[in-house]
Each structure stands twice: as structure tokens, then as C-alpha cells.
Specification:
Low-confidence stretches: 3-30
Number of domains: 1
Structural class: alpha+beta
Shape: globular
CATH architecture: Sandwich
Strand content: 25-35%
CATH class: Mainly Beta
Number of helices: 3
Helix content: 10-25%
Distance between the termini: 59 Å
Length: 174
């Protein structure tokens, strides 16, 4: 037990310093190739493969417009996210469980830096983009995980309809 306490303390200090190191950093997308890693909610897409663009507004009322999106399994979508507010907002695609976990981390380390292809950090009056391929059917979320925003209800839903299903045929959208 006496060995474990110093290890836990050292780990906590290291995390604190890494969070402080990110204070005031730019959260814009970095130049270079996008890291393609399969997630439960899909994989980073190629812009050339996107047949549809979905515009999403973010506001200081802690809401997205629209807050419900439907896509077809296999569809690559370009999201254009516009921050209409005066505060920093972000658009993060994920499962509810992943977003809950990330939101908890953001409360503990509010200035932490993260740059994943399923995230767009957008300053006031600015626009960001995400290109994502939804290669798995299911119900997923998008959210602003900035401390306090998620807790205030800044969440939306993405329904990925299985390829060949009746709902996908009704949607009739590329």
C-alpha cells in the first residue's frame, strides 16, 4: 500500500501537468493525413467519397440544429459545423458511453487537447468540417463535450440505417 500511494500521486501529477500543457492551445485540425481507425460508429472518410453534406449549427443555447440526423450504412458524409455563438463549441461523434467518458475527462481536464477525425473544435463565428464514413448500423450521438455544455444537453442523435432496410430506401438520399 505504501508503494501504491506514491505511484498514484505521481500519476495524478503527470496528468495535471499534461492538462496544463494544453491550456490555450489551438484545437483546429492539423495538416497532414487523417488517422483512420475503426470506431464503433464508423471510420474517417475521404472527402471525395462524400456524396452528401450536412450542415449543423451550434449555439450558446447549448443546442445543435438539426439535433437528429439519419444516414445509411456505408454512407460517407461531410459535416459542416458552424459555431453561431460567442463561445467555443465542438462537434464530436461517438457512442453515448464514449461521449459520457470523454465528457467526464473534459470536466477533470477542461483544457486538454484532442484531435481526432470525428471531432471538430470550432471557435465563435467559425466553421469546421468532418468527413465520416458510417460503416456500422446503429444509433449514435454527436455532442459538445466542453465542460458544462454536454451536461446542459448539447447532444444530438445520428441514426445509421442498415443497408438495404426499408427506412434507408424511404430516405432516398445519397
Amino acid at each position: 500500500m505504501q508503494v501504491i500511494k506514491p505511484l498514484l500521486l505521481a500519476t495524478a501529477v503527470a496528468f495535471s501537468f499534461s492538462a496544463l500543457a494544453h491550456e490555450g492551445t489551438d484545437h483546429s485540425k492539423k495538416a497532414g493525413p487523417v488517422r483512420k481507425e475503426q470506431k464503433d460508429w464508423g471510420i474517417a472518410g475521404d472527402a471525395k467519397a462524400a456524396k452528401r453534406t450536412i450542415e449543423v449549427g451550434m449555439a450558446d443555447t447549448m443546442r445543435f440544429t438539426p439535433d437528429k440526423i439519419e444516414v445509411r450504412q456505408g454512407e460517407t458524409v461531410k459535416f459542416v459545423v458552424k459555431n453561431n455563438g460567442k463561445q467555443m463549441h465542438e462537434f464530436v461523434i461517438g457512442t453515448k458511453a464514449e461521449n459520457d467518458k470523454h465528457a467526464d475527462m473534459m470536466i477533470k481536464f477542461p483544457t486538454m487537447e484532442h484531435d481526432e477525425p470525428y471531432m471538430a473544435h470550432v471557435g465563435p463565428g467559425k466553421t469546421g468540417e468532418i468527413v465520416w464514413t458510417f460503416n456500422r448500423a446503429g444509433d449514435f450521438d454527436f455532442a459538445c463535450l466542453i465542460a458544462g455544455h454536454y451536461q446542459a444537453g448539447m447532444v444530438g442523435k445520428i441514426k445509421v440505417v442498415a443497408a438495404g432496410s426499408t427506412a434507408a430506401a424511404k430516405a432516398g438520399k445519397p
